[in-house]
Amino acid sequence: MDRIKWDDYFMAQAHLLSLRSTCQRLSVGATIIKDNRIIAGGYNGSVAGEVHCIDDGCLIENGHCIRTIHAEMNALLQCSKQGVRTENATIYVTHFPCLNCTKSIIQAGIKTIYYAQDYRNHPYAIELLQQSGVKFEKVPFDANHIAQMFLDEA
C-alpha cells in the first residue's frame, strides 16, 4: 500500500472532525498542524454544556447561527487552553474560513491555510490573507479515494 500523503492525511483528519459537528446547516472540521504533528482539532458546535443545534435547532440571527462556534475557533481555543503555540503553524479546514475565523487565524500566527471546499469566500478575508502573507490554497480531497486505500490494503 502506498503511504497516504501528508495533505490527504491532515485533510482527512479535518473531515473526520467535521463528523462531530452539531450544527445542522454545515459540518466543518479543522486541524492545526505544526512540524507535521497535529496540535489541535475542532468542529463547529455549541458552547460546552449548552444545547446543540441538532437537539434544539439553529439559533438564527441575521442569517447566521449564533449558537455555533466555528471549527477553526474551537481548534485555536483548544491550543489556548493547553498552552500550545500556533506561531508558524498550518491549518487544514474542510471549508474556506469565514471572515472572523480568517482574522483569528492571522492573529494566531498561522502561516498556511489548506481548505477543501469554497464556502462564501469573503473578498476581505482574501485581501487580509494576501496582505498578511498567509498562504491559502484549495486542496482537492476525495474521501472515496482515502477509503479505497484501506479497502485495497484489506
Automatic annotation (TrEMBL):
Binding residues for Zn(2+): H70, C98, C101
Keywords from the named record: Hydrolase, Metal-binding, Zinc
Active site, renumbered: E72
Domain CMP/dCMP-type deaminase, chain residue ranges per copy: 5-136
Transmembrane domains' residue ranges: none
Molecular function GO labels: dCMP deaminase activity; zinc ion binding
Cofactors required: Zn(2+)
GO biological process entries: pyrimidine nucleotide metabolic process
GO cellular component, one term: cytoplasm
NCBIfam families (UniProt xref): ComEB
Official protein name in the record: ComE operon protein 2
